[in-house]
């Protein structure tokens, strides 16, 4: 049991340290935003943005940068470079920044990922490196410092490091940051300007390391057929394409180290990516970074770290390490577990306590889950505020109408009246049975990933049924009491925590929800009665009930 408690301690410790650092980070971010606003007109070209950022590194420069310059001067070189790069991104036009997904790796994360790569076998003194999404040189600058500390001279370091960056100015700035780190001008172009997904990369490398951009792309933006290895048509994410590139350009026995959205671990549409990774390499570590907020500037995203060794396909019986990547290294042992036997199956994080198993699913409650039907912005003509005489329609339940602890009633998108969806014929989208609705996506300010509520019976009696939007999940059952019991269970912290460990995204997956381990209906109902209706206490007791029964 001790490794499990150590794992929890790592999570709590890393999270606490992040909270302690947030105040200083907030101050520096405020300086960076103020500086970017004041210089927005001047920063109209990549070269202008580079000059502004390099001015920050000078002892004397533009007076308007003095406050920010003084703040940076007191920081270690890793932090200083990070904030210089961050200023560059804040100077970018918003559309450009979003299209390029320009968000940099914080120094603590970059250091931890490099440590994991070295532990996996990367030779700091001999191996070559590629970062195909070099950004602000977070990885390459860190590696340059490590190589110099290991005794390599600046020329040797420069010839081992290689980067590609799509933004012209960032490519220039990153090269200068590496040169400053080494205390010497670079004798070759370490970082070239280009789109790594389009340029020819002739070599293979001992370490391919990246925090790639993410975001869905159309097939018309993709070259070749390599995307089929890692994605499904209509759901091609840029970070999956970069993952395929990274494994392709790693040498045999080379290390691939990626900082990527956690959606790859469990998202049903990333099954090809998971299977591809296991076909190409031994998965050595899947790290988690506590907290969605504050990992990257202006991004609320669950983030994972993947470390793999290219060559052999992954052995399903091999233990995989699940470290917590935080600001303070932990001496506690890292929890290990195997990946599922099926290559494309989800990679859940280790259970807080694997001896507590519910043994049931929603199906045991007689509950069926399906995604919400109506996509309002695609069928605006069917969305009306009032039904005409003899016009057939049903009230629309929006995700924001769902609140735990109270029944759900349809309310208009603008919080006034009721919105209706019109129909000309019967449809399975019209819900006429006892039902509950869940939010399908949550934001970083919400404490729970799973948020569900029973639909008020008056909805059926007044309108004959309802329709829900695509940002919801509809739960139905023939037995309203069993459905209500399931909703109470889904709204507990115990179940929410279990779901978070199998899912790596803010969107709730219908597939994962159907598979989610729950206590049996009888166990939860009995525990609820014993706890005088306290759902939180009952959920914990119901999971314990399974352990006690199995030990008897």
Properties at a glance:
single chain, 552 residues, alpha+beta, Adenine-n6-DNA-methyltransferase TaqI, Chain A, domain 2, 7-stranded mixed β-sheet, 4-stranded antiparallel β-sheet, globular
Structural description of this entry:
- This protein has 552 residues and is α+β, with helices and mostly antiparallel strands.
- The chain folds into two domains: 94-338, 3-Layer(aba) Sandwich (Rossmann fold); 359-520, Adenine-n6-DNA-methyltransferase TaqI, Chain A, domain 2 (Alpha-Beta Complex).
- The strands form seven sheets. It has a seven-stranded mixed sheet, sandwiched between helices. A four-stranded antiparallel sheet has the order 15-22-19-20.
Summarize the structure.
With 552 residues, the chain is α+β, with helices and mostly antiparallel strands. The protein is built from 18 helices and 23 strands. The chain folds into two domains: 94-338, 3-Layer(aba) Sandwich (Rossmann fold), CATH 3.40.50; 359-520, Adenine-n6-DNA-methyltransferase TaqI, Chain A, domain 2, CATH 3.90.220.
